[in-house]
Amino acid sequence: MPVSQSHIFDKITTFFGRVKRSFERIGWPVFSERGLPIAMHQQIQDLTPKQRQSFYFLYTQAVNTHRKRRNIAIVLSAWAFFAGWFWVGVGLLVYLWYLKNRTIPETSQRIFQLATMSAAKPGSRFTPSSNNPYTRYGFTVREPKEMDFSYDPANLSVENLETGYLVDYDLKTWQVAQHEQYDWNETASEKVVTLVHETETLILHLCKEYNFTVIQRMDPLSIHAIQNGLEQKLLKGIMPDNILTVKDRLFYRDTRMEGWYFNLSKNKKAQKVTLWEYFDESRKQHLRIEVRGKNVKAWTGVQLSVYEFDEVLPNKTK
Fold it and tell me: Which intervals hold domain DUF4178 (predicted)?
């Protein structure tokens, strides 16, 4: 008796269903805390309620995408074995293993980091809002930290400089043309003000160290004046050399930091930045190299005293 096509189709469907259920039984992640990697459980408990809610929402979306990939791989692997393509089937099974044991944990960790960047917007349904990685899933944009500088309106100091302020330095009156800030991961923030006097420019970096204000005067330096090929090396993620030479002076690598850059004079959009700091043997001369996106910049600098600045006046147009 000939076998009908519908009967063959039912057999194939039943076979694929059994294969799929077997994969379900080996512990494919589900949309709950039980389906998460064990290491994530405690981390999730430390989140705020809004962050936890946003995490589960994004995790559900990600796992749903992986489920679709899994279902396609199951069908293709079963078909490969049925057609006699043994190694193709084995390759698809390896892919399924990788998807479950590597991709899902990595995805959960990535989404956890995204959820902890910021609390969700009030009333947000966690829907995509832009291509910005900090608002893409309904999160607020990363904001610059509040810097620990004292503020006395009757006695302003160089610490309080903002765009438009005036300050006396080196027997000249300078105006703040730009105000920037760096927030370093797990360390203090750094304030940057660009002063102008006629055709001259002065860049100051200010930060707090042990309750003292440290001021560095920074002069821009071409990255190509340091070492040939250094820019390409840094953009590829390769560490710079431990010792660099600038104008016959040796600089020794001191620290490497990662954080966020904000141009407070234009907008508060965060940019990821990586910084390498070098000092000469006397530690009086400073070399600074940073990678911000696809831009590599360098400066040399010396330390100044807060007492070299006086007569700080606010912007009267504010």
Answer: 163-304
